[in-house]
Amino acid sequence: MQTGALCAGPIHRTARDPLCRVIRLSVLLCCLAVIAAYPARAQKSPVRNLYGNSGIIDMPSAEVQPDAEIAVSFSGFEGYRRSTLSFQILPRIEGALRYAVLPGFGADGSALYDRSMDLKFQLLREGPNQPAVALGFRDLLGTGVGSGEYLVATKHLRPDLAVSAGIGWGRLGSANGFANPFAHLSPGWDERPAGATTGGTFNTGQYFKGETAALFGGVTWDTPVRGLRLMAELSSDAYAPEGRNGGFTPDHPVNFGLDYQPSNGINFGLYALYGRAVAARLSLSANPRRSLSTGAGPAPVPVRARGDPNGPPAAGPGTNATALWAASIAALSTALAEEALELDGIGLSGDTAEIRVVNRSYTLISQAYGRALRAAQNSLPAEIGKIVVTMMEGGVPVSSLSVPRADFERIAGTPEAEAKLADAVTLTDAAPDPPGLIQMPERLPRFRWSVAPVLAINAFDPDNPVRADLGLQAEGQAVLAHGFSVSGAVTKKLVGNLDQITRQSDSSLPRVRSDIALYLREGDPAINRLTADYLFKPSPQLYGRLSAGYLERMFAGVSAELLWKPVNSGIGLGLELNYVGQRAFDQLFGLRDYRVATGHASLYWDTGWQQVEAQLDIGRYLAGDWGGTLTLSRHFANGWRVGAFATLTDVPFDAYGEGSFDKGILLEIPLSWASNLRTRKRYDGVIKPLARDGGARLNVENRLYPLVQDAHAGQLRANWASVWR
Amino acid sequence: MRAALLFLAVTLGACSSDGTDAFGPLASGLRDQVMPQAPEAPVVTRAAVEASPFALIRVRMPEGGAAVMTPLADRGGVLTYMSANRKSLAVTGAAVTGSHGLGGDLLWMDLPARSPLRHATPVQGWAGTEARTYAHLGNNLAIARQRVTCQRRLGPAGSIEIVGRRHAVRRVDEQCAGGALTFRNRYWVGPADGRVWRSEQWVSPLIGTLQIEVLKPFER
After folding, report:
1. B44-72 as b/e: b if 16+ CB within 10 A
2. Closest CA to A172 of A78, A257, A49, A67
3. Within this chain, do residues A556 and A642 fall inside the same structural domain, yes or no?
4. Is B207 in a helix, a strand, or coil?
5. Which of A164, A233, A373, A407 has the fewest CB atoms in 10 Å of its CB?
6. pLDDT in tens, A321-355
7. What is the DSSP letter of A127?
8. CA distance A56 to A255
9. Cα(A183)–Cα(A168) distance, rounded to whole angstroms?
């Protein structure tokens, strides 16, 4: 199977559709489009070029986008098309993934479908007396059809006029070039080796090599017409690979263009290219750090101090203590329900009350904590001097926030309240079973269900760039005891053409993922998942999970996991062991013959720097291969996550096949980022260019780290101001 | 924008056991965004105001909606007013020192202890300068603080009518500036008792300026 798989559809918090390992690109596009309605930023972002990077027209500049800016760009001319997903990875590092169609590229006139990746490092920021300087790599992985390196400087001569000049190698050193200066330093640099045939690896042997290097440059003028910028450039790209078989050949190296921004987040480009073509571009952009939601919604109840006649109940002479408490707990339960929270239990010891709260509504746990603290303050009897709120996830307590009541009363609503409260509260590991805990009477078993449309998209298949299925997915869960539940999901296709994928797996490994076409064709209806899960907490810093059943669409079996994660530490350690069998293609109850023991030891590290998180998993993958996966991501305060992962195992690159090793990017977008809804729903997506068998991991639900992380110190600190929201 | 939200609504417009109506809270929330309800414009009569056992204020939003709010808590001289649809304002004396539920809310504002806004002050005592800090929650979830200096001067005397009741007032104009921020507040003040019957107060960049009218004053 030489194709990647994309899926879209609503899913629950930590779910990843196992079949497709997935993109939910439509959602991203949709979120980006929403931006159209928002007022323009005061400061303009740099223009994007035909490659979707900060640049001029076809050439790069030394500018970078605002930190975390994410964009999709579509451009084309004379049948050549480029679709690019670009991301400002760090304030000075810009990255892009591209899918390009080059018609008539092959000697036989066939089209080339090329995937590529770019990176640009801004070495110097622009200052009053210095230009911005950047070092960049185009198409630095893979087959290297578009590969080129550059060093470029950009300076604003006036606030509205930027000039760029640079030197390029490879593709960017191919027009009007001169002898590669590096060739003087070291012999062999005048020859640029061909790119790897299987792709997916860094072509370090190519960088800055070749017979020639060339100069390029251009200007960008921000015109007085609102949103309109004009560009002109001298290109150093001769389009030699395209021209070889009679494709596009420039008449001259000068390009002209305009960029128009009708509203924030949408840019159009129109260009006169190389004296012979007209090109167009559309870019849609958003910034994950900047929420589209305003935070409007039901206001929290005001904090009432003890002593207020309408405030917390107080015992007077002759008060029946039991009745007071019963009324108080009932009031607390109602108050929490008004804040869209649920009371799970309450524990008393001395003058401290611990309330356990289930949060199904707030993406930001600090906001859930704030709302729960208010409810507790207003409802608990006046004799309680200290309030502890414990957040529950999946029946397990994940963190406890305690505050002396007098401090809470004193601080609420005052200037610097968020900083003062941060000083007054204590965040601790939640005790599994504190003394005196009264569990709220639960109606067990408790059932939850939902039916929702799902869209599964498969893209990048050379036979047909986009295929899709629209279906319905029904999910259900029965909670049978605290932490113990049975849940499942079933999908039925309504309409689509995913079953027309004809590519056969050519894998020499056990076909643990590459038979995706067979699963897509035969699984209608399909049982995505049907499992019994038990979540538990053996000690304050230790979490456990046991799962058994049809764990995901391709595998069934048993799974056990332990996670050690102190609430105030940025480090977590996990261990997961699974024994699974491959499911039948029809995804009902049958199994195929393949069995495997798979599992990983995991290290989680919230670095605390630029919201960067790292995860290292080492162990045995589904095809029986041993190796490790490194995931680096940025996890923003509002819950957005953008990251990339790569897996290296003992499967050699040539045995792995196209792509050489497993890699991809991941996206998590909370719905509360794009709307004012009180919901924890979010879109999780993994964009993988290929679905192959090496380095494939089991996709089990309810993995523990994502379950506890948002309620721990790192993320709570990041969005702490929302505690008063 | 609408199309995008409709797409989302379709994608999410599912049924579930959590739903309180046929489309679930998600879908109905989206529906409200796609087809906003007509802004709440309560018809208020003097008889209804007099019949209320509670203090009442009427708050007009910049885009035209209005809400009647009543105080739910009185803590340290700060009243928290709330409307039926759960939007709330923290009011210290006559000054809005916080907002909730409106979106882009004012987390806090540090009103100086000697400000005439804090305590009913005869209008002669209003002219002058004071410094304040406005802290609102930005769309990046960070707190944006802006220190401003406000200059007040007395405007013309006259009278205003609020729901069938006429008040003799003197207008006070307040011009505030700090950083890139400038805004103007106005207060219609009872000349002798210093009671503010109507005001126009800037709250946050997203909310803008609210008009607040006291329909029935709060008595401690």
Report:
1. beeeebeeeeebbbbbbbeeeebbbbbbb
2. A49
3. yes
4. coil
5. A407
6. 888 889 999 999 999 999 999 999 999 989 999 99
7. B
8. 9
9. 14
SS3 category, A195: coil
Q: Look at residue A437 and tell me whether its pLDDT is greater than 70.
A: yes
Cβ–Cβ < 8 Å for A526, A586: yes
Same domain, A559 and A667: yes
Tell me, yes or no, whether A313 lies in a domain: no
CATH number, residue A81: 2.40.160.40
Helix (H) or strand (E) holding B12: helix B2-12
Sheet (strand A341-349) strand order: A426-428, A396-404, A386-393, A352-359, A341-349, A437-439
- For residues A431 and A474, membership in a common domain is answered with no
Residue A296, in any domain of the structure: no
Structure tokens at A426: 């204590």
CA dihedral over B64, B70, B73, B77, signed as positive or negative? positive
The domain that contains A350 carries what CATH number? 3.30.300
3-state secondary structure of A163: strand
Distance (Å) from the alpha carbon of B150 to chain A's nearest alpha carbon? 18
Domains of chain B from N-terminus onward: 2-34 (no CATH), 46-216 (2.40.360.10)
pLDDT above 80 for A305: yes
Question: Which pair of structure tokens corresponds to residue A205?
Answer: 């042997």
Residue-wise pLDDT for B104-146, tens only, equals: 999 999 999 999 999 999 999 999 999 999 999 988 888 999 9
Residue A642 belongs to domain spanning? 6-24+444-481+483-717
Of B14, B78, B141, the CB nearest to A722: B141
- On whether residue A561 sits in a domain, the answer given is yes
Task: Tally the domains of chain A.
Answer: 3
- Report CA-CA distances (Å) from A363 to A11, A367, A636, A673, B206: 15, 8, 12, 9, 22
A126 and A228 share one domain? yes
**Chain B residues whose beta carbon lies within 8 Å of the beta carbon of residue A413:** 75-76, 78, 80, 90, 97-98, 108
| The pair of three-digit structure tokens given for residue A668, joined into one six-digit string | 């998590």
Q: Are residues A495 and A544 in the same domain?
A: yes
By the 8 A CB rule, do A553 and A19 touch?
Answer: yes
**Residue A68 placed within a domain:** yes
Structure tokens at A28: 């991203």
H helix intervals, A549-703: 653-656, 671-674
Q: Measured between alpha carbons, how far is A93 from A122 in angstroms, rounded to an integer?
A: 6
Which B residues in the span 106-145 are in contact with A, Cβ-Cβ below 8 Å?
Answer: 107-110, 133, 135, 137, 139-143
User: Do the chains contact at B11 and A724, CB–CB below 8 Å?
Assistant: no
**Interchain proximity B141–A677, CB inside 8 Å:** no
Q: Which helix (H) or strand (E) holds A241?
A: helix A240-243
Instruction: Assess whether A250 and A366 both reside in one domain.
Output: no
